Amino acid sequence: MDFCINTHNAHYFSSVEEIPEEIWHSLDCIHNVYFHPNYLSALANNHPEIEFSYVVLFDEINKPIAFSTIQIVNFQLESVQNKSELFLEKVKCLVRNLGVILPKKPFKIITCGNTFVSGEHGIFIKQNQNKQAVIKELAKAVLHFVNSNPKLKKEISAYMLKDFVKESLVITNELHECNYYSFNVEPNMIMSIDGEWQNFTDYLADMKTKFRVKAKKAMERSFVLETIDISEENIEDYLSEMTYLYKNVSSKAGFNLGEFNIQSYRELKNNLGENYVIKAYFLKNKLVGFLSAIVNQKTLDAHFVGIDYQYNREYAIYQRMLYDYVDIAIQRKLCHINFGRTASEIKSSVGAVPQDLTIYLRHKNTIPNRFLSLLLSRIEPTPFHQNYPFKVKNFVAQV
Fold first, then answer.
1. I want to staple 191 with a disulfide (CB 3.0 to 4.6 A). Which of 78, 283, 301, 337 is the partner?
2. What values do phi and psi take at 340, rounded to 5?
3. Can you list the positions of beta strands (E) in the chain?
4. Which domain holds residue 84?
5. Tally of domains in the chain
6. Which distant-in-sequence residues (6+ apart) come within 8 Å of 250 by Cβ?
7. For position 47, which CATH number holds?
8. Which residue ranges of the chain lie beneath pLDDT 70?
9. 174 and 252 in a common domain
10. Which domain of life is it from (predicted)?
11. pLDDT value at position 61?
C-alpha cells in the first residue's frame, strides 16, 4: 500500500519497528502494555488480514504528544445483533438501499483503538495536553491518512474511534463536531480487588452466603479438572486445540470487529513473559478450556477464553475460569480485573460492575452518514440483572 505523506503535526508509520526510539521515550507510554512495541508487533505480525498503521501527533515545537494505532478491518453488518431484530432488519435494508453498505462490497472501517481489547487501549495522550483539541486533531489526521491515499480513499467506507469510558466523554464528544455519531456497546465488567484479601479464601469470606455457596459449588464441580500454566516451552503443544475452543466462544459473540488469531499467543507469551497469562483446563487429559489474561500495571485484563461447551455445564468450566481470574489477581496483588464484555450477569455474580463504553462512527459520505445514525441509535447494550455478591463493606459502586 502506498503510504501517506506526513503533515506538520502528524507522522505516520506502517510498522511499529519504524517508530524511532526517541518518540517512545518522549511519549513515555510503554509502561502501559498496550502501547509497548512488543505487544503491538505481536498483534500486527499475526493478523495479516488487518492493515495496521500508527500515527504520532506533535505539538508546535515538534514534541510528540499523542499516539494511536490505526487498523483497517472488514465489518459485517450481519454481525450486529439487537433485541429489536425486526426494526434492525428494516434499518439494514434502508442503509443498503442508500448505499451506506453495499451488499457485495466489503464495508471497510478504519478504526483508532484496539480491535481485540475493550477499553481505552488504542489512543494515548500525554498529560497536560488539551485533550479535546488532540482528539479533533487525531480525527483530522486519520482523515488525511485516507484522503492522501487514492486506494484507501476509494475503499474506506467509515471511520471509528473506540472505546471511551464515561469520564472521557467530555473530551471525546468533540467528535460530534466532526460528524461522528456515538453509540454504546456492551459494557466492560470491572472488579475491584480488596487490599485485605490475601488469598481466595478471604475473597469467599467477604461474599454473601448465596454467592459463597454458588462459588463453592462451582469449585466442587470443577475440582476434577486438571489445570496447567501454558509457557513458552509447551505452548506449541496446544495451539491447535485452543484455536478450536476459542472459535466455539467467538462464534457466539454479538459484535466482533475482527477474529483474534490464537497463534498470536506464541509471540505474546515470548514478548510479555509473566505479564501474559494462559491457563489450560483438562478433563481426563482432554483440553476442555483455557483462559488468557494480560497484566497491565495494576490491572488484570481478561483476554480470550476457549470452552468445550459439551462439558461446560457439568464441570462449571466458565465459572471456574472467572474465579481463577480473581485468584490470579489476588495472588499478584493487583487492584482491578477487567473481565471484558459479554456474560455480564454471571460476571457480576463474581463481583464485577459495568463500565459503560462509547464508540464514535461516521460514514465518509454525508447523506449515508445521516442514515447511518438510524442504525446506531438502535444499538443498545443488552440489559442484564446486576448482582451484588459482597457484604456491605465490599460494595463497589458502578465505575
1. 337
2. 80, -170
3. 10-13, 51-58, 64-75, 107-112, 123-125, 156-165, 181-192, 226-229, 276-283, 286-296, 299-307, 336-338, 353-363
4. 10-187+356-376
5. 2
6. 256, 259, 260, 304
7. 3.40.630.30
8. 1-3, 76-106, 253-256, 393-399
9. no
10. Bacteria
11. 94
